[in-house]
Amino acid sequence: MTGNTGYDEEERTFAALPPARGHGFARTWWGRAWLKALEDTALDGEQVRTGRRLARAGAVGAVSVRPGRVTAIVQDRDGTGHRADVLLARLDDAQWDRFLGMTAERGGHVAALLDREMPPHLVEDAESAGIDLLPGVGDLEPECDCDAWDHCGHTAALCYQVARLLDQDPFVLLLLRGRGEQAALEALQAYGDGSAGEGTARADGVDAAGAYAAGHVLPPLPVPPALGEEPPVPPSLDTDTAPPPGVDPDALTFLVSRTAAEARRLLADALRPGHEHEPPTGESPVAQDAVRLAAGGPGPAVTARLADGSGRDRESLALAVRAWRLGGPAALAVLEEEWTPEGETLARARAALETAWDADERPALRARANHWTVTGSPHQLRLGRDGRWWPYRQENGRWTPVGDAAQDPATALASATLTPGDEP
């Protein structure tokens, strides 16, 4: 049910969800991003696993969501209830104005939200405008009456339950960030009508004495302009002039268009807050870059050249492209590089597999290197070097990537067992 007492005080309460046995918690990319913020932030991985078990068993009660806070009663296995809260910073008014104005300019964003979808371009455009919709490392602040100073099993269980709610309705995230569905839609309508900002005009300039007195204070840098939705269109090479020997106009046209798209992606990444503190990335190997280009959908002739140039046959290149579209270089490495976990890495992997399922639900797994295959089943888990699990399914005699990576092996395996075509 929903109660409204003003935009800033809106609250939604969701009834307790049934146990989540046998499948993962987040099916959407934004739900998985929420869980990644929890799993990357929590200092105690065992507490995260405990929370996952509690949430899977249905121990999380009704969930209350309001701006900046989500609350629920979580029961331990002995039946003791604890109030768990997770806090997420609200967007300020200026950030909301930029977000709503940007969203209203792109009809596809509004239509997707109304369909209970959160397109990646919406989040990317928001980031380009200096607005983080999805939480990152350290953004999910825990509070629990068990007096844990970090994420405990109770707050972790609440986060897993919220991921299921986000799957159903991304407006839950907007409410946490400060605006409920009604308030957001009314504001978007106002922007669409051109009425937003009416009555806010003021005289240009400031008092000269005041400006002189504040002359030592530098103003903040302006917000970087938002990028266009599409990369620029390269010039056409369709002319009456015959191409020089050895030059394929179709291949060159494709390469130029992909270069423009990659340049736009790099610029968007450079405008992202915090980018200046990240180490530079090196150049991509030729074999990897060929997969990136093939993922752009060139024609058969160009695809054949990319396969030959990267030392792959067409079928291998198609598998590599499928992996790339799921997770970029990390997913491609898991597809093509087999390695053997040892020492602490192997111990963490075995612990994750041991605790991901209840004893009566745990599948029988056969291990080889970083591959764990379900006995008697065409399903497999592959461990990446970053500790994430990737789902695979045997199709036409070849192991094929079928879903995004997950910290929880049960979540990854659930993606592998979906009917082909229904993968998240």
Can you tell me about this structure?
This protein is α+β, with helices and mostly antiparallel strands. It is built from 15 helices and eleven strands. A hairpin with a 2-residue loop joins strand 7 (365-368) and strand 8 (371-374). Helix 1 (29-41) packs antiparallel against helix 6 and helix 2 (45-56) crosses helix 6.
Comma- or semicolon-separated keywords:
424 residues; alpha+beta; 6-stranded antiparallel β-sheet; 5-stranded antiparallel β-sheet; 15 helices; 11 strands; globular; disordered N terminus
Main sheet: strand order: 1-2-3-4-5-6
Q: Globular, elongated, flat, extended or rod-shaped: what is the shape?
A: globular
Q: Given the helix and strand composition, which structural class is it?
A: alpha+beta
Number of helices: 15
Helix amount, in percent?
40-55%
Summarize the structure.
The protein is an alpha+beta fold. It has 15 helices and 11 strands.
Detail the topology: elements first, then pairings.
Layout: E1 2-3, E2 11-14, H1 29-41, H2 45-56, E3 63-66, E4 69-75, E5 81-87, H3 93-104, H4 107-114, H5 120-128, E6 141-144, H6 153-168, H7 171-176, H8 181-193, H9 208-213, H10 249-270, H11 286-294, H12 300-309, H13 314-336, H14 343-355, E7 365-368, E8 371-374, E9 379-383, E10 389-395, E11 398-401, H15 409-416
Antiparallel strand pairs: 1-2, 2-3, 3-4, 4-5, 5-6, 7-8, 8-9, 9-10, 10-11
Helix pairs in contact: 1-6, 2-6, 3-8, 11-12, 11-13
